[in-house]
Amino acid sequence: MIDRSAIVAALATVPGLTPSPMRPDTIAAGAAWPVWIGTHWMGLRPDSHREIRWYVYVVLNGTAQSGTAAEGDPLIDLVGNALSAAQLRTDTVEPTGVAVGETSETLPALRFTCH
Length: 115
Known about the structure:
Layout: H1 4-11, E1 18-19, E2 31-41, E3 50-59, H2 65-85, E4 90-99, E5 106-114
């Protein structure tokens, strides 16, 4: 079963990322962190196999679409491969935005949905 620390360790293998176990107080390009989104028990017994689902966020630089694509496209495989090496299966990678502080500013990001 993959836990938060294993995801952070996998993210640490990707050059340019600054992984943390939780969303950092200061959001900047390269920030990366997991968010637990649910657990599914695969049987009726308490010791049954469980599938834990995670979002993994990776914040990109800037707001220009061309720069975001140039930076984000290579990260899809780099981060996906790092998560696979940590025994996580990635179902989806999608573009998203991450709010910066309490302002209305957002930074572009990638969101990986894994289990």
